[in-house]
Amino acid sequence: MKTIVIDDDIYAHLLGHTQEIGESATSILRRLLGLNTQSARTSSDVQETFDFLKLPELFRHMNNSQRFLFILSWAFRKHEKDFAKVVSIEGNRRKYFARDLETLQKSGSSVNPRQIPDSPFWVITNNSTAKKCEMLSDVFRLLGYQPEDISAMLRIALRP
Fold first, then answer.
1. Same domain, residue pair 123 and 146
2. Considering only CA atoms, which of 156, 68, 159, 82 is closest in space to residue 116?
3. Are strands 97-98 and 122-124 parallel, antiparallel or unpaired?
4. Domain that holds residue 120
5. 85 in Cβ contact with 143 (< 8 Å)
6. Other CB atoms closer than 10 Å to residue 39's CB: what's the count?
């Protein structure tokens, strides 16, 4: 993400094109410039995600791997139509997501694949918390969330 400096009158013009409370400057610019507006999540989607991540049960009696699976399960249920995009997320030598256990087992040793609850997808879980955050970031990016929203969500979701 880059930071730019703009004049006050341009910023006021930009704010004048806000369509939803809390809409980010990036979303407004995307819409005005006709860039990829279909994949961007609305502010109500983002707020619903923040509300979910603040649920007390996420942190009570769950380790980071359990939270990771819980968040992925929720993301699948909320974005079931688009969730299949996650199978494209992979590292240099490993696939991180798959529709079957065998695909992940073949992609490396000690991957500790687990099925994402309430979904037909599998994910490797033998990663550091930082790597799990990176994977969640990739998931939310593919589901159309903006980078600034993803960063804020991950600060709530998993603590590296």
1. yes
2. 68
3. antiparallel
4. 41-157
5. yes
6. 12
Q: Name the stretches of the chain with pLDDT < 50.
A: 37-38, 160
DSSP string, 62-126: --HHHHHHHHHHHHHHHTTTTGGGGGG-B-SS-B-EESSHHHHHHT-SS--EEEPTTSS-EEE--
Q: Write down the pLDDT at residue 107.
A: 84
User: Can you read off the two tokens belonging to residue 22?
Assistant: 């809390």
Read off the tokens for 130: 């930082």
CA terminus-to-terminus distance, the chain: 21
Helix (H) or strand (E) holding 54: none
**Quick one: pLDDT at residue 38?**
46
Taking a C-beta distance cutoff of 8 angstroms, is the pair 107, 95 a contact?
yes
Separation between Cα atoms, residue 52 and residue 54, nearest integer Å = 5
pLDDT value of position 160: 46
Q: Does one domain contain both 55 and 36?
A: no
Query: What is residue 109's predicted lDDT score, i.e. its pLDDT?
Result: 81
